[in-house]
Write a structure and sequence with these properties.
By secondary structure, this protein is α+β, with helices and mostly antiparallel strands. It contains 22 helices and 26 strands. The strands form 6 sheets. Strands 15, 16, 17, 20, 21, 22, 25 and 26 form an 8-stranded antiparallel sheet that branches. It binds zinc ion (ZN).
């Protein structure tokens, strides 16, 4: 099988990076004993966020320290599935993060894969309080912390690229919040002093240049803890050397599918600015660039940058699952194009951080749309296999070259490392970071229910311990119950995100209805909270349709997008250690056009709810089904395993009317999501 070109170019890049070995000697730093006692130091402070220090602009909200928001209900079960699947066992079956990893001092993979794996393993371990996973993560962290060079450099000596270190810094900030390990802050101080001295001669390049904002976030994290003004100079230098995403989107040039020819992939253009500016994962990470920089610049224009960025990506590349197309460069709006899993989890992380900085409820809506559709849709039910690219209209999962812009033929199979192994390592951060972001602290020291899922919060508000329990089967049901338990009566504002689709939302406190909240806002409740106060939020979910490529329609209800679940025939392609690679072939026809009255969608859709049990994002366990009417459209078919572009709506069909059952997008591994609409 022909190796996909982009893989070759990225592997060549890795080799080149490896060849530029560091010459500086690596000190065997004295191993600092990290004891439980050390972990307890300052534990009182760890229940509440460190807020922005002057002269930074304040965040609207602050994410709570890792371990303060704990998953419950279906979300906890989802994290357990991940821990029992590839996410919790990857190092046992994949050499790239195994015992010979460069991030354990070995001679193996020494670039981004070790840090990627940890970026999700650390929150997974601490949110599940899982000692097996904590011990796994600790090995890489201890090696990293104990092997810093005398000059401050960190990481495998065989590779001096700034980029993978950015990911390790993301890991260390989370780990420090969860444990209070006293080694982390001095380690980061030494590293940043070194990097600041080196950047003028050895500036950010390729991945690091296009992902500078992820490092800026970590530098600001440290600045808020130690107040060293040199760190702000470092952030300014990263911004200056980094790609100007805001200018890129102010005059957005990439309004159609980016092809391999356009970026000159075969002539070594894989790491050109053109290729990197149109690269999906870079664009997902870049959504946080303007919000992060706005903390330094204090500019309203910067604060609004993300809204414009999303609008441009949606207008030219938007897909109904909440993503933009990127397989792996921007690929237009055809729902047969794909989105890379790394982009899914990176876009989620950008939205979590941007929601915190800006307090814009629309970012929470978008985060839920991706987390509750695109994320589960790209994994097998047991999370032992994943795709590189997922498609909204995904009619076959098999080896084919079409329709990817620059990716290879394995891109949509479910497996260990389809196409390229970045997603294999990076997939871990999706669910755990969502769980950690459900509740936040507002800058006026109140609590914010930012995103909804079952959880428990143990935090400190205005110096008082506050315990909140969120009981809900959201996003499958519309009711969310909070029990607020301050250690003593305490006045603070509680903000509740009211999604833009929730036009008939209600909020009650201890059974008393509050003034009707506005959709697309944060409802604010100011009161003196007492033990066992109860808040009930109802977000009635009525079916709606949205319009996509060629005027196609997608059916939604609340944060869930619904798909026709095509019959699935799973075929094992090959064993891969503890897991396997799978192809999936359709066992039913899928070429439906739907008849839905746009003026009365609810009348065209029959909703059936069944109990929410384990595995709600599986076909077997799908707790909500929608029944609609449709007709087959004989002229719409697949070629080379790919659905032809959805025919322009409205369409006519002489075929008989049928009942068509839709299930949540995440449950349907073969699916149609963007449908032609039948003429009225
Ligand atoms: Zn990836």
């Amino acid at each position: 099988m022909k190796r996909p070109v982009n893989v070759t170019s990225r592997r060549t890049f890795l080799k080149q990076a490896g060849a530029a070995a560091l010459t500086s000697s690596v000190l065997t730093a004295p191993s600092v004993a990290f004891s439980e006692a050390a972990a307890q130091t300052g534990s009182r402070d760890r229940g509440t966020p460190v807020q922005n220090r002057a002269p930074l602009a304040p965040n609207a909200f602050y994410t709570l320290p890792l371990g303060t928001v704990l998953p419950a209900g279906w979300l906890k079960e989802q994290l357990e599935i991940q821990a029992h699947g590839l996410g919790g066992h990857l190092d046992e079956t994949w050499a790239d993060v195994g015992p010979n990893s460069g991030w354990l001092g070995g001679t193996g993979e020494s670039w981004e894969r070790g840090p990627y794996f940890l970026d999700g393993l650390v929150p997974l371990a601490y949110l599940l309080d899982d000692s097996r996973l904590k011990a796994k993560a600790q090995k890489y962290i201890d090696w990293t912390l104990n092997n810093q060079s005398a000059n401050g450099m960190m990481g495998p000596a065989g590779n001096d690229d700034w980029w993978p270190r950015i990911v390790m810094l993301k890991v260390l900030t989370q780990y420090q919040e969860a444990t209070g390990d006293p080694r982390v802050i001095p380690f980061m101080e030494r590293y940043y002093a070194f990097q600041y001295s080196q950047l003028p001669q050895r500036p950010l390049r390729d991945w690091g240049k296009f992902r500078w904002q992820d490092e800026a976030l970590c530098v600001l994290w440290l600045y808020n803890r130690n107040g060293d003004p040199k760190l702000l100079d470092l952030v300014r230098l990263l911004h200056q050397q980094g790609f100007d995403w805001q200018a890129n989107f102010a005059d957005f040039q990439y309004t159609s599918m980016v092809t391999a020819e356009f970026i000159k992939l075969n002539q070594g253009g894989g790491l050109s600015d053109l290729a990197l500016a149109t690269h999906g994962v870079n664009n997902g990470q870049a959504l946080k660039a303007s919000p992060v920089w706005s903390l330094v610049s204090n500019s309203e224009k910067d604060r609004l940058g993300i809204t414009h960025q999303l609008a441009m990506l949606d207008k030219y590349h938007g897909l109904p699952n909440g993503m933009f197309s990127c397989d792996e460069h921007l690929a237009g709006r055809n729902p047969s194009q794909g989105s890379e899993l790394c982009t899914v989890v990176e876009m989620m992380y950008s939205l979590e951080q941007s929601l915190a900085i800006l307090g814009d409820p629309a970012l929470g809506d978008r985060l839920e749309r991706i987390a509750y559709n695109a994320l589960p849709g790209t994994f097998t039910d047991d999370m032992w296999a994943h795709q590189y690219n997922q498609q909204p209209n995904q009619v076959e999962v098999s080896l084919h070259r079409k329709p990817w812009t620059t990716d290879g033929p394995e891109s949509n199979i479910y497996g260990l490392e389809p196409n390229f192994g970045c997603c294999t390592a990076n997939l871990n951060q999706g669910w755990p970071k969502l769980a950690a972001s459900l509740f936040m602290l507002s800058k006026d020291n109140g609590l914010v229910a930012a995103v909804y899922a079952p959880c428990e919060v143990k935090t400190i508000v205005r110096g008082v311990d506050v315990h909140v329990v969120e009981e809900t089967e959201y996003p499958f049901r519309d009711t969310i119950r909070l029990t607020v338990n301050p250690a003593k009566p305490l006045a603070f504002p509680l903000r509740l995100r009211i999604p833009s689709w929730a036009t008939d939302a209600t909020v009650a406190v201890n059974g008393q209805l509050q003034p009707p909240p506005n959709a697309g806002s944060f409802a604010r409740i100011d009161r003196t909270w007492k033990a066992d106060d109860r808040v009930e939020i109802k977000l009635p979910m009525s079916p709606q349709i949205s319009r996509w490529y060629n005027n196609s329609i997608a059916v939604e209800r609340g944060p869930l997008v619904y798909s026709y679940g095509i019959g699935e025939g799973w075929l094992k392609w090959r064993d891969r250690g503890m897991t396997a690679d799978w192809q999936v072939y359709p066992t039913s026809q899928w070429n439906y056009a739907l008849r839905i009255d746009p003026n009365n969608v609810a009348a065209s859709v029959r909703v059936t709810e069944t109990p929410v049990a384990a595995g709600p994002f599986t076909r077997k366990g799908a707790p909500v089904k929608l029944e609609v009417t449709g007709k087959k459209l004989p002229g719409w078919f697949a070629e080379d395993g790919v659905a032809n572009p959805v025919p322009p709506s409205p369409v006519k069909s002489a075929e008989p009317e049928e009942k068509v059952t839709l299930i949540p997008y995440g449950a349907a591994k073969l699916r149609i999501t963007a449908f032609p609409a039948l003429e009225e």
